[in-house]
From TrEMBL:
Source species: Faecalicatena orotica
Any single GO BP term: acyl-CoA metabolic process
Residue ranges annotated for the HotDog ACOT-type domain, each copy included: 8-119
PROSITE patterns per record: HOTDOG_ACOT (PS51770)
Keyword vocabulary terms for this entry: Hydrolase
Family, similarity comment: Belongs to the acyl coenzyme A hydrolase family.
A Pfam family the protein falls into: 4HBT
Highest taxon above the source species: Bacteria
Record protein name field: Acyl-CoA hydrolase
Amino acid sequence: MVEERRVADSRVETVHMVRPNHLNAAGRLFGGILMQWLDDVAGLVAKRHTRGNIITASVDNLRFIQGAYQKDVIVIIGKVTYVGNTSMEVRVDTYVENMDGMRRPINRAYFTMVALDDNDKPTRVPRLILEGEEERAEWEAAEKRREMRIKRKEEGF
């Protein structure tokens, strides 16, 4: 029987406070710190989906929309958007959350994660159960991003 999981089964949300040691010389959240947090979330999502070992293969469309500053509350949400045979795409969105609970987006990235067996060889990932139009639309957009990744790889990028 083929394993299947819903998008909601592996969704991850983490919360961080921007502290002085997270700041760059301009007084904003250092991009490298944010990238570490994003990779952590993508890895947790992929581990939940596969219930096994994973590795980050690539990061696409890492867009810094706005900065974050000391004492900002950062909310990072990750979810599986697409699965192939041994890999999956994980969308990671980042927000600054205000005291009233309102969130404004500051970053979005798409990670390609690969499932590994006990010998660190790629292994099959569970299928993704799509529930609702939003998840189907995200899957279709992910298929287009996958095609672009393949084309870039063929062209040497």
